[in-house]
Amino acid sequence: MENKRKVSYYYDSDVGDYYYGMSHPMKPHRVRMAHDLIVRYGLYKQLQVYKPLHATLDDMAAFHHRDYLEYLTVADRGGDRATANASLKAKFNLKGDCPVFEGVFRYCQSYVGASLGGAVQLNHGQADTVINWAGGLHHAKTNQAAGFCYVNDIVLAILELLKYHKRVLYIDIDIHHGDGVEEAFFDTDRVLTVSFHKYGDDFFPGTGGPEEVGVDTGKYYAVNVPLDDGMDDASFAFLFEPIMEEVVARYRPEAIVLQSGADSLTGDRLGRFNLTIKGHAACHKFMMKFGLPMLVVGGGGYKIKNVARCWAYETAVLLGVEASVPDDLPPNEYYEYFKPDYKLHLTPDATLKNRNDQGSLARVLRTVLDNLRHIRPAPAGPEQLPGPAGAAQQQLEKAAEAGRRRAEGDARASDQADGMDVDR
Ligand code: V1D
Ligand code: CA
C-alpha cells in the first residue's frame, strides 16, 4: 500500500541562489544539492515534479501582518540598502539571525508557494504525499522574522488544509522547538502540534518546555518533547513511536504536516543530536503507515552535505523505494562535497555522550502520555480520560521494567528488557 502513494515534489531551480550571507549557517544551496541527488538516484521518475507558483502577499496575509510583508517586498528589491530605517528593521527583527538579503521576498514566495500548492493538492486528493524541501520555516511569527525564518509556510499550509480537513497533525523533528507553528495554533483543537527538540542550556528559541500544552480550547493540543544532547536513533524511536501512535489513536487527524529539519542529524553545525539518516527517516516511515494525506517540508540543517543526503533518502522512503537506493552515491554535480567516503548513510559519533538516560526518557514519555489522555478528536465532546492505548502502554511498561532492573543493578537484563542502548 505504502509504495502506491502518489507523491508530488516541489522544486524551484532558483532556490539555491538565495544567499543569507557568508558567515550565516543557513544555505538554501543545500536544497539544490538534495535535488541533484534525487535526480541522480533516478527518484524523480516516480515523483510528480512541480515548479511552485510564487505565493502572493495576499496569500501570506492569511497569517502575517501586511505592514511586515510590505517591508519584506521593499527589502527584496533593494537588499539591505532599501531598509536603512533601523527602527522598522528592529521591529520586524530583520537583523542577525534574519538578515535582509537580495531577493528575500521572492525566496519566501517560492517556498510558501510550494507548501500552499502542496496543501491544495492534498485537499483535492491530487496527491497522497507532497514534498517541499525548501519549506519548513517554523519560527516565523505574524509580524516578525525569527531563527532564519521570514514567512511561515507551515502555518499558511495548515490554514489551507483546514479548509478541507477537520483536524491537522503537525510534527516537528528539527532540533529546534517549532515555536511559530505552536504559537499560531496554541488556542485551538483543530491543529495538534508535536515538537521534539533540544531544550535547556539557552538553546534557541528557549520555548517548548513540558508544561507548555496550549490554552483555552487548545489546552493539551500542543505537545512538547524536550530533550538533551546526544539523542540517538534508539532513544528517538523510543519516544517518537509510542507518542505518535497515541496521538493518532486519540486525535484521529485527517492530514499530517511533517517538518523534517535535518539539524537533528549527527555532526550538524548547530545541532547536538546523534541521529543517523536512517533514524531520522524512521519518523517518516512510521507516519506513512497511517495512510493519511501528508505534507513533508524541510527546515533546519547546517552540514549541507548531510542535509542533501538526508532529504534525498527521505524522498526514497516517502516513495517506498529506499531498499533499492545504494549507499554508494551516484556521480553528481556536487560529488566532491561528499568526500571522503562518498556514501549516502552516516555513522553516529561514538564520542558524543547521550545525555538522555533511560530514566529521563521514561519521565518525558510519562509526562507526554499523561497529557495526551485529555485529547479527543475535535470538535470537542465530553472529556474522558482512559489510560494509554496499546503500543504506548507497552512502551511505558517496558520503560518501567527497565528502570526497576537498573535499580536492582542488573544492567544486562535491563538492556534486554528495553531493547535499546541509550547509555553508551
Ligand atoms: F551561528 C550563527 C552564525 C551566524 C548567524 C546566526 C547564527 C546562529 C546560530 N544559532 N543563530 C542561532 C540561533 N540564534 C540564537 C540567537 C542569539 N540570540 C540571542 C538568539 O541563538 C538561531 C537558530 C535558528 C534555527 C533555525 C531552524 O533550524 O530551527 C530552522 N528551521 O527551519 C528553518 C530554520
Ligand atoms: Ca522540533
Automatic annotation (TrEMBL):
<feature type="region of interest" description="Disordered">
    <location>
        <begin position="376"/>
        <end position="424"/>
    </location>
</feature>
<feature type="binding site">
    <location>
        <position position="176"/>
    </location>
    <ligand>
        <name>a divalent metal cation</name>
    </ligand>
</feature>
<feature type="binding site">
    <location>
        <position position="302"/>
    </location>
    <ligand>
        <name>substrate</name>
    </ligand>
</feature>
<keyword id="KW-0378">Hydrolase</keyword>
<keyword id="KW-0805">Transcription regulation</keyword>
<dbReference type="Pfam" id="PF00850">
    <property type="entry name" value="Hist_deacetyl"/>
</dbReference>
<feature type="domain" description="Histone deacetylase">
    <location>
        <begin position="24"/>
        <end position="317"/>
    </location>
</feature>
<feature type="binding site">
    <location>
        <position position="147"/>
    </location>
    <ligand>
        <name>substrate</name>
    </ligand>
</feature>
<dbReference type="GO" id="GO:0046872">
    <property type="term" value="F:metal ion binding"/>
</dbReference>
<dbReference type="InterPro" id="IPR023801">
    <property type="entry name" value="His_deacetylse_dom"/>
</dbReference>
<dbReference type="GO" id="GO:0000118">
    <property type="term" value="C:histone deacetylase complex"/>
</dbReference>
<feature type="binding site">
    <location>
        <position position="174"/>
    </location>
    <ligand>
        <name>a divalent metal cation</name>
    </ligand>
</feature>
<dbReference type="InterPro" id="IPR003084">
    <property type="entry name" value="HDAC_I/II"/>
</dbReference>
<keyword id="KW-0479">Metal-binding</keyword>
<feature type="compositionally biased region" description="Low complexity">
    <location>
        <begin position="377"/>
        <end position="397"/>
    </location>
</feature>
<dbReference type="InterPro" id="IPR037138">
    <property type="entry name" value="His_deacetylse_dom_sf"/>
</dbReference>
<comment type="similarity">
    <text>Belongs to the histone deacetylase family. HD Type 1 subfamily.</text>
</comment>
<keyword id="KW-0804">Transcription</keyword>
<protein>
    <recommendedName>
        <fullName>Histone deacetylase</fullName>
        <ecNumber>3.5.1.98</ecNumber>
    </recommendedName>
</protein>
<dbReference type="GO" id="GO:0040029">
    <property type="term" value="P:epigenetic regulation of gene expression"/>
</dbReference>
<feature type="compositionally biased region" description="Basic and acidic residues">
    <location>
        <begin position="398"/>
        <end position="424"/>
    </location>
</feature>
<dbReference type="GO" id="GO:0141221">
    <property type="term" value="F:histone deacetylase activity, hydrolytic mechanism"/>
</dbReference>
<keyword id="KW-0156">Chromatin regulator</keyword>
<keyword id="KW-0539">Nucleus</keyword>
<dbReference type="InterPro" id="IPR023696">
    <property type="entry name" value="Ureohydrolase_dom_sf"/>
</dbReference>
<feature type="binding site">
    <location>
        <position position="263"/>
    </location>
    <ligand>
        <name>a divalent metal cation</name>
    </ligand>
</feature>
<feature type="active site" description="Proton acceptor">
    <location>
        <position position="139"/>
    </location>
</feature>
<dbReference type="InterPro" id="IPR000286">
    <property type="entry name" value="HDACs"/>
</dbReference>
<feature type="binding site">
    <location>
        <position position="97"/>
    </location>
    <ligand>
        <name>substrate</name>
    </ligand>
</feature>
